[in-house]
Amino acid sequence: MEEIEKYTKLWDLPQGYGNNYDHPYWVEIATTLKHEMGLTGIHQCHKILDVGGGDQRLAKFFTEHSYASLDIAPNAMGPGENAYPHTVTDISQYRGHANEFHWVISIDVMEHIPTDLIDDAIANIWNTVTEGAAFLISTRPDRGGKKIGAILHMTVREPKWWVEKMGQYWSKVSLVRVVSGEYCLLVCRHSKSCSEKTQSESKT
Fold it and tell me: Average pLDDT for residues 119-131, to the nearest whole number?
């Protein structure tokens, strides 16, 4: 089953798909990553891209910032529901503008990407941001694929693997949290400031 077909089927289920960001479990994760990104107060970098944003439930944590989302499923956003900019594409194929956003946040997405496309996905995220990216990455086999008879977690790896992989692109990779057998939280940053990265790349 193709990746786009999987997530189209999941969003077509009566209960829909995606994380419940009203639940304390997910509220704590989202607020923790936001804190680690340094976006809990006034901050010069305010453009956020939610990779795997689905129906934009995560947007409520970024009301003071400029928020946009991206998702592979064409039916994740229903007609008339799109309150923020939304792009339908696979992040491994995304060709956004360099330095278009300051931060990417991606919760429960990277493990869904086929392993041979992980590098493309990370490179595309790296290219589109001036500051960095925050990730929650599941480190276990999925439980939800049985709903549609498919495997969802295509890249199940230990946190160390993800740290090393991210380190091939980002100058600073912080392993914020590890819940053994469940997930890890990572915050990755460029070594240069917003203006320095933009200026240096404009000269190339």
Answer: 96
